[in-house]
Amino acid sequence: MEMETSVSFATLALRLGTALAIGLMVGLQREFAHRQEQNARAGLFAGARTFTLISLLGATSGLAAELLQAPLVVLLTLAAVGALLTVAHYIGAQQGDIGLTTEMAGLLTFLIGLLCYLDRLVLAAALGVGLTWLLTLKPQTRLLAERISREDVYATLKFGLITVVLLPLLPDRSYGPPPFDALVPREIWLMVVFISAISFLGYVLTQVLGARQGLGLTGLVGGLASSTALTLSMARRSHDWPTLAPTVAAAILLAWATMIVRLALILAILAPPLLEATALPLGVALLLGAAYSALLYRHRQPSPSAEAPLKNPFELKPALLFGLLYAAILLLSSTARLYLGTSGLYVSSLLGGAADSDAVVLSVAQLNRTGTGLPLDVAARSIILAAVANTVVKAGLVWVLGAPSLRRPILIGLLLYTLPALLLAWLV
To answer: Which of 107, 197, 367, 390 gives a 20 to 30 Å CA spacing to 132?
Structure first.
């Protein structure tokens, strides 16, 4: 009986070629990591060739299962690969190597190869790159484990527990007439989780990379966690670094640039049309502000240790406070628009942005998504006003708390970040 596959030769070659490339990439990383280890074993049981073969085996098992009309072929092949990896691990354990990283990577590479044959090429490529990246980050993950505290672990666990238990119990509907119909408890807490997750990414990067990499890098990763906290920390410590004013100013302005990227990320996920409407003013402000920051950073001197005191964003108290602030701004925005029209929304965005631009962006995006009739241009301008108000407040913190030598570069940076955004938001 003649067996034929349902795909053409070109398609089959693409899928098998992708499996081959992913297996080779993972295998090369394993060989490179093996050479870098000081106490490396005499031999590595799975390198570039073996991982390539494992990935191809996953793909060809899928092909064989389709040709034979027997899905059990995949399971049997996976079991055989698992048995070989078990034997390899046993031999390695006898020699003192009890790690399972390479063995687990081998199993995942087999499944990635199978995904390639099933035409999930984008997913397979993403998993392959993610796997290689994770394998490469061994020193950084060890450093993170050393730097996080017991309080960080407890805070994260408590936040996760509260979310898992609380979220299903929160009502998924609003209560009361307008403007109270804008308050949906479950959506409010989901936004808290969303913002906390973004902040946690910046917090982890700060813990992994540290500030000893330089003030510029501190501004970038610290700004992702909290640009206001980073600005406040730098302003206070600038008195201890009288000769580093351009570098400190560059770090602060880079944190402001990261805030714009952060806002764009929120809009890209929650309200893509709003991102498109704000792309020009935010993009020009980001370009000018980042360029001036880079110019200041070029004149840097050797940077001291500049650890910024950032709190774990998964701590319950800050998360709950942000939830209350977000709900208050959402209610304020809805009320202002209901009774005062467009001008009321602009005022509420200015006032709310001075406290937290994230909360304003989330509230405006929520009003835009729920079909309240909020015009896109009004929503976009409200977001720009919130970002501008927040930037002005941070500049004021530097002016009051920072060294006098910071005032001129921060003022120039403030004008570059705010004036183009305001002009483009209202003129274009």
So the answer is: 197
